[in-house]
Design brief:
Layout (H helix, E strand, L loop, with lengths): L2 E3 L6 E3 L3 E2 L9 H16 L4 E3 L8 H9 L8 E6 L6 H15 L4 E6 L8 H13 L3 E7 L3 H10 L5 E7 L11 H8 L2 E5 L14 H7 L3 H9 L5 E3 L6 H8 L8 H6 L1
Parallel strand pairs: 3-4, 4-5, 5-6, 6-7, 7-8, 8-9, 9-10
Antiparallel strand pairs: 1-2
């Protein structure tokens, strides 16, 4: 597994993480067991970044992650997110406490604002986030779905902490962040966490160069993940609800392509 620094910190997170959207929603005991087994298999393969949110399954995703990481806390970097409806100061504190309880941990490694809320002053929200850092409930602060302007406003609202990440949609099918957000994150050393890096399953397999598939012995999904994380400022969190998928994802950055090959993709 390949690892990259988180923002300006010395923290190393896996280039390929595990997203847990819809994890925690299941129709049978077997499906639930498979989800836990999949997360644990990812950890075995060196995937240490696990991303969840209080919104996912109304907290059930965090609860399932808690079961999956039982006994493995020191091997994982846990990221979760606070809802935009919970961005007033006291609501942030309460939401974090509830996430900690569901996750079964004392500290969240990365606490992110899930979506911006223009009805709540960002300084109020960031004051609460820094309070959580001060008391040891949160290690690092991030945002999600923030524009360049919103990212800068959030960063400037922090008085003692750095803004380490911005989680946004990014894939070969959705490259809008390349216009301004990705360059901004690179300049300011803010990690871009790419969600839906496999375009929600809409992989354009017919457009993946066959020469690369044959040369590297990779699947189209692996080619897409390798491409999405070609820049050092980017890590990706594909969802993996099955063991074979997490194994496929984890192997996607075992080798790096040349620049001409990335251009070809």
């Amino acid at each position: 597994m390949e690892y990259r620094r988180l923002g300006k910190t010395t923290e190393k997170i896996s280039t390929i993480g595990m997203g847990t959207w819809r994890i925690g929603s299941y129709h049978s005991r077997e499906e639930r067991t498979d989800q836990i087994r999949t997360i644990r298999r990812g950890i075995e393969l060196g995937v240490n970044l696990i991303d969840t949110a209080e919104m996912y399954g109304e907290g059930r995703s965090e609860q399932l992650v808690a079961e999956a990481i039982s006994g493995l806390r020191d091997s994982v970097f846990i990221a979760t997110k606070v809802l935009p409806d919970h961005l007033h100061h006291d609501d942030v504190i309460t939401a974090c406490d509830r996430s900690l309880q569901r996750l079964g941990v004392r500290t969240v490694d990365l606490y992110q604002i899930h979506w911006p809320n223009t009805n709540v002053p960002i300084r109020e929200t960031m004051s609460a986030m820094e309070e959580l850092v001060r008391v040891g409930k949160v290690r690092y602060i991030g945002v999600s779905n923030f524009s360049v302007r919103q990212t800068e406003e959030a960063r400037e609202a922090l008085t003692r902490s750095e803004l380490v990440s911005n989680q946004v949609e990014y894939s070969i099918s959705n490259r809008s962040v390349e216009d301004d957000l990705l360059p901004h994150c690179k300049r300011e050393r803010i990690t871009l966490i790419a969600y839906s890096p496999l375009a929600r399953g809409a992989i354009p397999t017919s457009r993946v160069p066959k020469t690369l598939l044959q040369k590297y012995g990779m699947t189209p999904a692996q080619i897409m993940l390798n491409w999405a994380t070609r820049d050092e400022a980017v890590v990706a969190i594909p969802k993996a609800a099955r063991t074979d998928h997490v194994e496929e994802n984890a192997a996607s950055v075992s080798v790096r392509f040349g620049q001409q090959e990335y251009d070809l993709i």
